[in-house]
Specification:
CATH class of the largest domain: Alpha Beta
CATH superfamily of the largest domain: Aldehyde Dehydrogenase, Chain A, domain 1
Structural class: alpha/beta
CATH topology of the largest domain: Aldehyde Dehydrogenase, Chain A, domain 1
Number of helices: 15
Radius of gyration: 23 Å
Bound molecules: nicotinamide-adenine-dinucleotide
Number of domains: 2
Shape: globular
């Protein structure tokens, strides 16, 4: 197949592997179709990378590491800022590409692009600080020795990302990895590689040296697994499903390499009777239907204090039935399709299961007729606690709602999951805000706030949701080794 007959998409389109500064075909000569989830049309074909391509990319990254690790923080900061400016300059094309490939409404794609810019700018600042803070003296209990602690780049790192926030999950890894002085082999999702390939082109234009950033597209089996297993890769940072995260950890164990994992979630929004009801409706809807619910942080369990339960259900029913689902480029559209066919089918199975499990009430929205992976926004009221829809991550626009009577009961239900990524609390009582935030087993707690994420903070969760934290100084530390240098006094 050739890309010539495919419909044009805005801006230059990159579909080749990017290795050692060169756009090249994969060794297998096979290509994979990229589908627009709103129309189900093929919009591009990308290289199906292989273990051989991974090896070429890792070796290029290892070679580049020799000089990249010697650059100053200020030099790396200048490149990170140049990437941020490059993304800004292509803001509109990148948002369009994100919407075409992933299906999210254009307004949401624009938020993603802003997030990428903010992340590169933030880590440029931390890279600069490394020139001052990268080496620090340690106070010792005697004068016979002098000890310094150095923060050094981990080496060649493998970055593996999913399809729900392409570019954003990548920026959260790529910016700190480059800031730390690591070189990178990036494996985007085979479902949404186009925004990542565009980002690589921006990095190349910004002057990132050959071999410092390499992108190998393809499947998890053909590209992801060999990347994790490669002996020259020092560290793997993975975002994706918990099941694949487990496999990544096992494979990484065979070469004793470090892993950072950002995995699934089954998070709660807890609405107390003293909450502002308008705000609660807003936060429940955005926590469940933003990005068509394809968020690791989706607050897919809605816990509401009994006295306001019926009022909240009525308001949510109104909201869901009015939610405009459709093509992300149509004005007024609030929710797009699911990003790929497999996910669409998976979510439909969960909805059928929820119905079979006998919820007291099922609230459903509407979807446009015709092609596209559109799923009705759905709320199950009072579904059984042992139902799969209540216990498992659905990763679609499906919420389950239950009423509670006491604060302790609400916290107990929210914590009764194998995951611990995020939680939202909606209450006007300041003492309760603190109590509940303290009691929730989650890496992020939003109090009366939407799911805003600042690169300065931290991202990750408890239990089976994560290992390590992204963003903030933690995100940088994930790509650093610590070295102690102890020198006998009077010999230096
Ligand atoms: P996935 O686990 O199927 O795939 C993620 C990435 O891993 C893809 O690039 C895939 O090709 C690759 N992969 C697949 N098999 C592999 C293997 N054996 N070795 C190495 N790499 C392999 O996940 P997905 O369906 O793309 O994304 C959805 C999942 O991601 C959800 O579970 C969601 O909760 C999670 N997620 C988590 C966060 C977070 O920050 N915690 C953020 C976004 C998504």
């Amino acid at each position: 197949m050739t890309t010539k007959s495919l419909p044009r998409i805005d801006g230059p389109l990159h579909t080749h592997l990017y290795i050692d500064g060169i756009w090249r075909s994969g060794e297998s000569r096979r290509r994979l179709p990229i589908i627009n989830p709103s129309t189900e049309e093929t919009i591009a074909e990308i290289e199906a990378g292989s273990a051989t391509d991974v090896d070429t990319a890792v070796r290029a990254a290892a070679q580049a590491f020799r000089s990249w690790k010697k650059t100053t923080g200020a030099e790396r900061a200048a490149l990170l800022r140049a990437i941020a400016r490059g993304v800004e300059a292509q803001r509109s094309d990148l948002a369009t590409l994100q919407s075409r490939n992933n299906g999210k409404p254009l307004a949401e794609a624009q938020i993603d692009v802003c997030d990428v810019v903010a992340t590169f700018d933030y880590y440029a600042g931390l890279a600069e600080q490394l020139d001052e803070t990268g080496e620090s003296t340690v106070a010792l209990p005697c004068d016979d020795y002098r000890a310094v602690i150095r923060r050094e780049p981990a080496g060649v790192v493998g970055l593996i990302v999913p399809w729900n926030f392409p570019m954003v999950t990548t920026a959260w890894k790529l910016a700190p990895a480059l800031a730390a002085g690591c070189t990178v082999v990036l494996k985007p999702s085979e479902v949404t590689p186009l925004p990542e390939l565009a980002l690589a082109a921006i990095a190349a234009e910004a002057g990132v040296p050959c071999g410092v950033l390499n992108v190998v597209t393809g499947t998890g089996v053909d590209v992801g697994a060999p990347l994790v297993a490669h002996p020259l890769v020092s560290k793997v940072s993975f975002t994706g499903s918990t099941g694949i995260g487990e496999q990544v950890m096992k494979t990484a164990a065979t070469t004793i390499k470090g892993v950072s994992l950002e995995l699934g979630g089954k998070s709660s929004i807890v609405v107390f009777a003293d909450a502002d009801l308008d705000l609660a409706v807003e936060l429940v809807a955005s926590g469940g239907f933003f990005n068509a619910g394809q968020m690791c942080s989706a607050t897919s369990r809605v816990l509401v204090e009994r006295p306001i339960a019926e009022a909240l259900i009525a308001r949510l029913a109104e909201r869901v039935t009015q939610l405009v689902v459709g093509d992300p480029f149509m004005p007024g559209v609030q929710m797009g399709p699911l990003t790929n066919r497999a996910q669409y089918e998976r979510v439909q199975r969960y909805i059928a299961q929820g119905k079979a499990d006998g919820a007291r009430k099922v609230i459903e929205g509407t979807v446009p007729a015709g092609r596209g992976h559109f799923v009705k926004p759905t709320i199950f009221v009072d579904v059984r606690a042992d139902s799969a829809v209540w216990r498992e991550e659905i990763f679609g626009p499906v919420l389950c709602l239950r009423a509670f009577d006491t604060e302790d009961e609400a916290v107990g239900i929210a914590n009764d999951t194998e995951y611990g990524l995020v939680a939202t609390v909606v209450t006007g009582d300041t003492a309760r805000q603190k109590r509940v935030a303290d009691a929730l087993e989650a890496g992020v707690v939003w109090v009366n706030a939407p799911q805003v994420i600042f690169p300065q903070t931290a991202w990750g969760g408890y239990k089976r949701s994560s290992i390590g934290r992204e963003l903030g100084p933690f995100g940088l530390a994930a790509f650093q080794e610590i070295k102690q240098v102890l020198t006998a006094a009077g010999t230096a």
